[in-house]
């Protein structure tokens, strides 16, 4: 039972790692290169990725290509002994007037040693950070969809624990 807190952190990392994308807020300036970088910090562990491909530039609706987030095509990595992978191509819709972006679904799997946990979160809302295209998460809960009985049934990510930058 000593592994339960670590598994909870693993589950939270997995869910949050897939939802951290930031995007520049203003239309003026240099053309966007249709990339996304993300970071999430959970229970002292950090997961990051850079240079994921997007289907369009904000504020147009877009998707993030999971093959450019996950290894070997991407560089998603977590410190410690946790690995994560994104199972879907999340869609993002921008409301520049309100300064928010919404994500339809994040589906992620986290692994620690031989234990695998898969979680899904829906209808996520991200707030723009100032005038940039960086967005930080509002609190959300992801539900376990498969994995070990040792995986928590759900994990909650606090506001500001994840971010995504669209560039």
* Strand residue content: over 45%
Helix coverage percent:
under 10%
Helix and strand element order: HEEEEEEEEEEEE
Determine the number of helices (DSSP H or I, runs of at least 4 residues): 1
Kindly report how far apart the N and C termini lie: 43 Å
Major sheet, described briefly? 12 strands, antiparallel
Structural class label: mainly beta
- The shape, in one word, is globular
Unreliable stretches (pLDDT < 50, length at least 5) are 1-29
* Arithmetic mean pLDDT: 84
Number of strands: 12
Compute the gyration radius: what is it?
Answer: 15 Å
- Classify the oligomer: single chain
Compact summary:
Mean pLDDT is 84; it is low at 1-29.
Description:
There is one protein chain. With 167 residues, the chain is mainly beta. It has one helix and twelve strands; from the N terminus they run H-E-E-E-E-E-E-E-E-E-E-E-E. The chain has one helix at residues 4-17, and strands at 35-42, 45-53, 62-63, 77-78, 82-86, 91-95, 100-112, 115-128, 134-137, 140-147, 154-157, 162-166. Strands 1, 2, 3, 4, 5, 6, 7, 8, 9, 10, 11 and 12 form a twelve-stranded antiparallel sheet that branches. The longest helix has 14 residues, at 4-17.
List the helices and strands and how they pair.
Elements: H1 4-17, E1 35-42, E2 45-53, E3 62-63, E4 77-78, E5 82-86, E6 91-95, E7 100-112, E8 115-128, E9 134-137, E10 140-147, E11 154-157, E12 162-166
Antiparallel strand pairs: 1-2, 1-12, 2-4, 3-6, 5-7, 6-7, 7-8, 8-9, 8-10, 9-12, 10-11
């Amino acid at each position: 039972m000593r592994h339960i807190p670590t598994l909870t952190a693993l589950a939270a990392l997995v869910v949050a790692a897939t939802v951290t994308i930031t995007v520049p807020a203003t239309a003026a300036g240099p053309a966007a290169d249709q990339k996304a970088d993300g970071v999430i910090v959970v229970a002292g562990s950090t997961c990051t990725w850079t240079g994921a491909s997007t289907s369009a530039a904000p504020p147009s609706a877009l998707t993030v290509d999971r093959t450019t987030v996950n290894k070997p095509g991407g560089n998603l990595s977590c410190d410690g002994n946790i690995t994560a992978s994104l199972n879907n191509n999340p869609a993002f819709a921008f409301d520049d007037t309100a300064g928010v972006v919404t994500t339809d679904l994040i589906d992620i799997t986290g692994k620690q040693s031989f234990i695998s946990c898969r979680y899904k979160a829906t209808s996520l809302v991200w707030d723009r950070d100032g005038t940039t295209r960086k967005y930080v998460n509002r609190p959300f809960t992801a539900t376990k969809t498969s994995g070990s009985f040792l995986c928590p049934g759900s994990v909650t990510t606090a506001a500001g624990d994840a971010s995504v930058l669209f560039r």
